[in-house]
Each structure stands twice: as C-alpha cells, then as structure tokens.
Automatic annotation (TrEMBL):
This is Molybdopterin molybdenumtransferase. It catalyses: adenylyl-molybdopterin + molybdate = Mo-molybdopterin + AMP + H(+). Catalyzes the insertion of molybdate into adenylated molybdopterin with the concomitant release of AMP. Residues 180-319 form the MoaB/Mog domain. GO terms for biological process: Mo-molybdopterin cofactor biosynthetic process. Belongs to the MoeA family. GO terms for molecular function: metal ion binding; molybdopterin molybdotransferase activity. Pathway: Cofactor biosynthesis; molybdopterin biosynthesis. Keywords: Magnesium, Metal-binding, Molybdenum, Molybdenum cofactor biosynthesis, Transferase. Its cofactor is Mg(2+).
C-alpha cells in the first residue's frame, strides 16, 4: 500500500503530453491552447463611432441647447462597414452608425436622440456631449503584437470570442485525451433496462463519463461487461487500442470475481501501485502499458470510483493537455469530520464563503456506496488519518468540484 502523496507522485511522472493539432474554432471549445496567441493588428483597427448619431466638430455644437440648437449640413451617411467619403468641416457633419469609421475632420459623435433626427440634408443639435464623446479610438483596446492568450489556457466562450475577433479560423490546441471507460459486474444494467433480481443500474459509467467530458476528454468508448474473464479481456484490448488513457471501475478488489488486476497485468500493463492508504478507494490500481498508456483501475463503489477519478484522473487529464488543475483550498469545519484512524479520508460536502472566510461541512451520507451523497455537494473534503474525529473549527482541505463553485 502506498500513501496518497506517493500515488500522486507516481502518476505525475507517468504523464505524457498529447500532440498538438490545428482545430477549427467552432470545435475547439474546452481544448487547451498550445501556443501563445498575439494580436495581428490593433483593436479597434480604426477610429469609429460608439453610438448612432452625427460625427461633428465639437466647436460647432459646444453651445447647442434646446432653445438655440446648432444647425449643421449633413454631407453623407456612413454605415458600419462603409468608408467615409468626405471630410467633416466647420458647419458640416456626417450621419454615422455605431461601428462606422469616423470621417476625417470629425472629433465627436452626437447621439441621434439629441438631434432633430436622421434623414434630412440639415440637422439640429439640441445638446452637446463632452469633447470627443462617443468615439472608439484605434488601438485603445489592444496594441498590435500584444499577447492575447497564453499557452495552457482552456478555450471558453471568452477565448473563442477573442480568437474570432482577430480572424483566427483554426487554433493550435493539445489533442483531447481519448479515454476508454470500462464498467464491470454481472449485476450491472443500463438505465432504461428492466431491473430483475439483484441487478442494479450502472451509475459509474455515467458519472465517470461526465467527469471525463468536464476535463475536456473525448470518450473513445464505454464498455459495460459482466464478471467474465474472456469478455473483460476483450474489452480491455479494444479499449486500450482506442484510448490514450483507460479507466476501469469494479472488480479490482480481492473478491472471488475480481479479475481486473490480474487481467491488466496479464495484458502487459505494468503495475505502478495497487492499493492506496485512503478511504474510500483503497483498492485503487494504477499501471502503464509499454507504450506509456495510463490505466486507472477504480473500485466499483460509486463514491469510491468518483473520488479516485476526481483526485487522480482529473489532474492527469489536465496535465496531458498541458493545463494546470485548479488548486485546493482550506476551509473551517462547522461540524466534526469523521477522520479515519488509519487512512487518509475523502468525503463529499459543501463549502461556502461568509464574511471573507471559508466554511465547510460533510454531506449527511458518507458511505462509499451512497451515490446520493453527491447531490448538493460542491466539494470533496479531505483529511489525514487521525485517532480522533476532527472538530468544528479545525481547518481541512477542500477540492471544489470542477462543475461546481463556491457558495456565497
Ligand atoms: N474482503 C474485502 N472486501 C472488500 C474489500 C477488501 O479490502 N476486502 N474492499 C472493499 C472496498 S474498500 C471496495 S471500494 C470494494 C471495491 O471492490 P471492487 O472494485 O472489486 O468493486 P465491485 O466488487 O465490482 O463493486 C463494489 C460495489 O460497487 C457496485 N458497483 C460496481 N460497479 C458499479 C457501477 N458501474 N455502477 C454502480 N455500482 C457499481 C457493486 O455492485 C458493489 O456493490 O470492495 C470492498 N470489498
Ligand atoms: O475504499 Mo472502498 O473504496 O471504501 O469503499
């Protein structure tokens, strides 16, 4: 048996980064940038109107009022995407739309609500804005060559919007990890099937698959197999050839029908460790193929499987994409934490913020078969082995779930 820390270390040194690929923007969401992206041009590219109205020389309208409007000759209309034709000179102006380039000579835009309106050859201005109001200046947002996005950033709507604004149609990203998920057990049935006798529904396939997608992975296949050596072996061979990383759940303990460890090593997966001093998830297995493919053998209990995935597989999937994994934070217990006497313990719970301090408590259901202990949880709380339960007021480490956030 090895410690949680050693398990992390063994896994971390085994990670191999995935190759870089050029991906069309509209299919790159959630992938990780493989290069810094610099601005190819300034933004805005040219001075332009921030509001619909009239591009004017401020000197002409500075004293305009309802009673004494300034009257200007309208020389042209400039729509967004059009080029101005004539310069604005003293006594003249151009009707201009938001985003349209400012004509030469104009320094200010008067919004149309403060004028007699669009359409005439003359316009009355009833109210003057500040000098240079309603103009967006070339380069005020981004200078040419400026680093816009850094390698290692995950592409969310924000990054995708920025890339598109600079005309990128493809983007260099680390390939998504292809993950194979095998769930094992004679008792398993898929949701939608009829349950008979002592059968149960396969929840691990779904919860682990969902975690993998949250980590930016691509599921290469899901295999739900009975406790049958030949069938499991076939699934393992298929899944290994289709995946960069393989996760199995179930059959990894020491029961009569727990074949996974033997089958994996029999297929040439070199065992790095099997069994970690943790609760839940003691019979956790990790090994590598001679091609470096990583194999995680998770225990079948639904909470144990998820704890192992969150603690070990999520950071691995991030590291394979050269992306950092969000850090853990400390919070103060408001209720006791049932520390284990011998094993490092993980329990789902809630963390929240109050007056600048972080507090947490464990979910009411804490056993490793209780999948509903996750409902309403937003973090995984952890604590080293201790002969006494930890009391309210003690600090513990929390890992906010990747799909959750801190409560206010
Ligand atoms: N004598 C011992 N018995 C057990 C030990 C031990 O050390 N000595 N370890 C216990 C611990 S801890 C765990 S965790 C489990 C892990 O066992 P396995 O990985 O072999 O898992 P299974 O036996 O296949 O299943 C355990 C449990 O989980 C249910 N299960 C399995 N797969 C799914 C799934 N896809 N969806 C929902 N539920 C699933 C299964 O029906 C069992 O109830 O072993 C303890 N026993
Ligand atoms: O360690 Mo097992 O994973 O407690 O349930």
């Amino acid at each position: 048996m090895i410690t949680v820390k050693e398990a992390h270390e063994r896994i971390a040194v085994s990670v191999k980064k995935l190759p870089v690929e050029e991906k069309p923007l509209n299919s790159a969401q959630g992938q990780v940038l493989a290069e810094d992206i610099c601005a190819g041009f300034q933004l805005p590219r040219f001075d332009n109107a921030a509001m619909d109205g009239f591009a004017v020389q401020w000197e002409d309208i500075r004293d305009a009022s309802q009673e004494h409007p300034a009257v200007l000759k309208v020389t042209e209309e400039i729509a967004a995407g059009a080029q101005p034709g004539l310069p604005v000179v003293a006594g003249s102006c151009a009707q201009i739309m938001t985003g349209a380039p400012m004509p030469k000579g104009a320094d200010t835009v008067v919004i149309f609500e403060h004028t007699s309106g669009f359409g005439g050859s003359e316009v009355k201005v009833f109210k003057a804005p500040e000098f240079c109001a309603n103009v967006r200046y070339a380069g005020e947002e981004v200078r040419p060559g400026e680093v816009l996005l850094k390698r290692g950033e995950r592409l969310t709507p924000a990054e995708l919007g920025v890339l598109a604004a600079f005309g990128r149609s493809v983007v260099p990203v680390y390939r998504r990890p292809r993950i194979g998920i095998i769930t094992v057990g004679d008792e398993l049935r898929s949701p939608g099937e009829r349950l008979e006798g002592a059968a149960i529904y396969n929840s691990n396939g779904y919860s682990l698959g969902s975690c993998a997608i949250a980590a930016g992975a691509q599921i290469s296949g899901q295999w739900q197999v009975p406790d049958d050596v030949a069938v499991i072996r076939e699934a393992l061979v298929e899944a290994l050839s289709a995946s960069d990383l393989l996760v199995t759940a179930g059959g990894i303990s020491t029961g009569e029908y727990d074949y996974m460890q033997e089958l994996l090593t029999g297929l040439g997966i070199e065992q790095e460790f099997w069994k970690v001093v943790q609760k839940p998830g003691k019979p956790f297995f990790f090994g590598k193929g001679d091609d470096g493919k990583m194999v995680f053998g998770l225990p079948g209990n639904p909470v144990s499987a998820l704890v192992c995935f969150l603690e070990y597989c999520m950071p691995t999937l991030s590291a394979m994409q050269n992306s950092g994994y969000h850090g853990k934070i400390e919070a103060e217990l408001v209720e006791p934490f049932p520390a284990d006497k011998k094993r490092y313990r993980f329990l789902f719970g809630r963390i929240w913020q109050k007056k600048g301090r972080l507090f947490c408590k464990v979910s009411p259901k804490i056993e490793s078969h209780m999948i509903t202990s996750l409902v309403g949880a937003n973090c995984l709380i952890e604590a080293p082995a201790s002969l006494q339960p930890l009391s309210a007021g003690n600090a513990v480490t929390c890992n906010v779930l990747p799909w959750s956030s801190l409560d206010e």
